[in-house]
Amino acid sequence: MQADLTIDSAAAAERKAKETTLLSPRFYTTDFRAMDRLDMTPVRAEWTAMMAEYEGDNNHDHFQRTPEFATEVAERFSKVSPEMRQEFLDFLITSVTSEFSGCILYNEIQKNVTNPDIKQLMRFMARDESRHAGFINQSLKDFGLGLDLGGLKRTKAYTYFKPKYIFYATYLSEKIGYARYITIFRQLERNPDKRFHPIFRWFERWCNDEFRHGESFALIMRANPHLLRGGNLLWIRFFLLAVYATMYVRDHTRPMLHQAMGLESTTYDYTVFRITNDISKQVFPITLDIDNPAFRAGMDRLFRIQTRINAAKARGGVLGLASRLLWSAAGLATFARLYLLPVQRHELPASARMAPAW
Ligand SMILES: [Fe+2]
Ligand SMILES: [Fe+2]
């Protein structure tokens, strides 16, 4: 748990959601005219099939709370320790912020493009993400910590990303989101006594939405293969590492959450990396070598550096600042070393589409 913030009021929850740090979820905007120029012709048959799936909307009735929901919160969640409660609230707030981040981005693109394929896709994905964000927010409201999503939309800082960076980053966050949710769901399916909050029962059908969102970005990139070769491979490598490292550090700062589910953060994270590596071969010709001992040591070092940065932040003053700068430089150097490790290369499959089989 980060030392500088206790989530004990709606205002604290809002501060947490608005945080703009390297690790916190961000809001994005992009170049809509460039999105207009995208051409889906090379993947038309797969695209049409995917649009039919969105149209079918098999999750339209999924995000409703059942009458037992409140009872389960009362019976199970009331038993967790105050520290664990903080970690879970932190998890809910980062999750709602990243769901809502997708909702805003897809909605903005939908409103600002004329390209009919992109417009239609973005409308479907914004629909899904708005349900996801709303559903998590209901659980925050149970604790009196509901976020004002409209206010967040107006006041949180936005980051501009070129379309190709949006594709790499969003593709990965959708797929890693799927891998995270399905790993938790399977674990709690095997160990129902460890399900300390009912929201996890929704994760299976939920993560199929995220899987499909990822499929959509995979098709966009496969239709524009220049995004997947040459100098762009350096960007793909960068985003793979940035997404994996962020998740690793963030998860390790809240270890109790996974322990309560009978998982251990490092094992959980490497399970998620493995699934994400397997899936991302549908579109990226390179994957990170997550079994390289230097990779594992580097990830660990990033986490240890982050705890030093948090401690320096909490200390404040000139010494705190100096120590923060030093540790930030060490973090950057570690990231650079990880970036330079050899990657694994492979051919792309003939068809990009995959099924959520985990
Ligand atoms: Fe989502
Ligand atoms: Fe999504």
Characteristic terms for this protein:
358 residues, mainly alpha, Ribonucleotide Reductase, subunit A, two-stranded parallel sheet, two-stranded antiparallel ribbon, 4 strands, globular, binds fe (ii) ion
Describe this protein's structure.
This protein has 358 residues and is mainly alpha-helical. It has a single domain, classed as Orthogonal Bundle (Ribonucleotide Reductase, subunit A), CATH 1.10.620.20. It has 14 helices and four strands. The chain has a two-stranded parallel ribbon with strand order 1-2. Strands 3-4 form a two-stranded antiparallel ribbon. Helix 6 packs antiparallel against helix 9. The longest helix has 31 residues. The radius of gyration is 20 Å and the shape is globular. The protein starts with 9 loop residues before the first helix and ends in a 13-residue tail after the last strand. The mean pLDDT is 92. The structure holds fe (ii) ion (2 copies). The site of one fe (ii) ion has 6 residues, from helix 5, helix 6 and helix 9.
